[in-house]
Every structure is written in structure tokens, then in C-alpha cells.
Amino acid sequence: MPSSKKLLNPKIALPVKSASESKATIKTSERTEFLTNANAKSLSSKIEFFLISLNGTVYVEDSNRNKTLTPRAAAAYLTLQNNGKKYKFVTNTSRESDDKTQQLLASIGFGISKNDIYSSLTSTRDYLIKNELRPHLLVSDEVLAEQFSDLHTMLHRPNSVVVGLAPEKFNYANINKCFRLLARDKERKLIAINNGRHCLTPDGLSLGTGPFIKILESASNREAVAVGKPSHLFYWNVLESLGVTDPLTAVMIGDDVREDVIGALAVGMHVCLVKTGKYKAGDELTAIAFSRGEDLVEVPVEERCLVVDTFADAVSLLVKKVVEVGANVLL
Questions:
Q1: According to the model, what pLDDT value does residue 51 have?
Q2: By three-state DSSP, how is residue 45 classified?
Q3: Shortest CA distance to 195 belongs to which of 99, 97, 98, 92?
Q4: pTM for the complete prediction?
Q5: 321: phi then psi, degrees, rounded to nearest 5
Q6: What is the C-alpha separation between 219 and 197, in angstroms, rounded?
Q7: How do strand 324-325 and strand 328-329 relate by DSSP bridges?
Q8: Which of 8, 20, 14 is CA-nearest to residue 236?
Q9: What is the pLDDT of residues 54-93, one digit of tens each?
Q10: Which terminus, N or C, of the chain has the lesser number of Cβ atoms within 10 Å?
Q11: CA distances (Å), 255 to each of 140, 244, 265, in order?
Q12: Which helix (H) or strand (E) holds 146?
């Protein structure tokens, strides 16, 4: 394999289901053909469900968090909507509620409904409800009020600790409270809304949720349950929310080779990498290992996914029809 290829994790084998994920109602199919640039047209008719990453794919964001839609993103959305495709716009943010995300999108001309959004916060709610967990939540006040007000049980013997991105809450007292809850009962779950090591803020690169999760994992001697991208749980949850029974009827479109492409491949979905947002030249050459019998076979990502310039280009390839407004063809 050429030395320019980046080996992210030589132990990844696809498709994979953990013991907890095997309880999902979604059935897996043995993959016979991967979506690539060579077969996009022939496979497009089999794809009915679309997962689309928001930040970096639908819009790009600068260091001051100013957002701009990627080329023809609004037209691509209309194409999906008008051709009867089912879709969710996914985001891994845990610092903004789904309501806030919807408002931000509307402000830049991308008017989708709240029900069209599936975030790591949504995935967390689904996981908590499905497993009948009573969480102690270390999240921002906005997220607590708008996403978890009915589940917040600080005063009622929580049996889980949930941590999201809440810089204003990341102090010794709050982290120590989470530790003490975990230390008192080894059965209490530690749940990471996401595990990002760092994030971009107006004043520069800042610590994400991941380092604080690591502190709690180390101190409490347990492994956190990850429910955001790129975890299997996130993808199973969002597929289940769409009613998907076969991952081969769904495609994940995203700009992040790890969270979007490898994460979705790991649950048996088709994937499409776009060259916007987090994409860096050569990401499509990232090496990934697939299981073949008892062996692991290493191949570049581009042999297992479609690679295009933009979200709109992906929709143009995968949706046969076009949408017209007056005399103007949008896609």
C-alpha cells in the first residue's frame, strides 16, 4: 500500500455489531457491492434513506462560527424532499439544542423542520428512554431545558451520568460530583454524548468533551458508552428512527472521514465523502481494514465509498429526478 495512505485503525472490521447493538430491530445484510464512483448510477435506485451531516457538508463554519451554505445545498434538500426520499440531517453537537440548530439553519436559508434533525442529543434521549435510565446530566443550561427537562433526575437517585459539551460547567465541583455518583455504584453507566477531543471556539481551539470523559473513565474504572458519531449506537439509533430495516438502503453523506465515512461503514451503510468542511486532500486514501473470513483486508476508503465535491453533487448522482421551480432547474 502506498505510503501516502493513512492507517487510522487496522483493527476495524466491517460490518460490526456489539452485544448491546444486537438488540436493535434493524437487521444487517451481507454487503455484496459498495457504493463507489464507478457504480453510483446503478446503485442509486436502491437507496431510499439519506443521512446528511450538517456542519461541513450542508454548511461550513469559520473560526467565528459564521455559517455559509455549501453550493446548491438548499436545492439538494428540495430534491430529496420532492422525490419522496426519507432523510435526517445529523450533527454531533452537544452544546446547542435541536431547536437552536434549527433556528441557526433557518437564519442562513436552510429551512428544515426540527424533526428532520437527528443529533447526538437526540441519540442520547433515545438511548436513555430505551434503557429506562435516570440520568444526572452535565450539559449546558440550554440543552438541559430544551432536550432533557423531563429526564433530569438530579434529586431522584440517578443510575447514569451523562456528559456533553458544557464549558461553563466543566469545573472541579461538577466533575467530582459525577465521579462520586459513579464511584458509589459500579452499575451506574457513564454516557458520553460525544467524545470530541477538541472543538473550535471564537477564541481558538478548545478542549472538547473527550478529555473530561477520560478523567471520569480513569477515576471510576469504567468505560463510557458513546452515543454520538461515530459510534455504532448513533447510527443504529438514527436508522431506527427512519424505519430502516436494511442499512444497504441508506447512505451517509459527510465530510469527516472518521465520524461520517468509517462510522457509517461500520454498520453496513453506503457512504459518500464530500470535499467540503473537515475534508483534507487525500482523505479518500485513508486505509481501513475489512474482514474477509478470518482475515483483515486493508483497502483505501475510496474503494468503499462515493467521493464527490459537494452534498448537492451527491444528491445529483443518487436521485434520478430533478426539481424545477418555474423555468429554473435546481439540480
A1: 98
A2: helix
A3: 92
A4: 0.84
A5: -85, 170
A6: 18
A7: antiparallel
A8: 20
A9: 999 999 988 777 899 999 999 999 999 999 999 999 999 8
A10: N
A11: 27, 23, 14
A12: helix 141-147
Q: What sign does the CA torsion over 215, 216, 217, 218 have?
A: positive
d(CA 111, CA 117): 11
Give the type of residue at 262: I
CA 137-266-101 angle, 5° bins: 40
* pLDDT tens per residue across span 16-40: 333 333 333 323 344 458 899 999 9
Please, what are the domains in the chain?
7-92+229-329 (3.40.50.1000), 134-226 (3.40.50.1000)
Cell numbers found for residue 273: 465523502
Joined grid coordinates for residue 205 = 481551539
Q: Is the peptide bond before 230 cis (omega within 30 degrees of 0)?
A: yes
Supply 174's cell numbers: 461538577
Cell representation of residue 130:
430505551
Mean pLDDT of the chain: 84
Grid coordinates given for 56 = 461541513
Whether 123 and 227 have beta carbons less than 8 Å apart is answered as yes
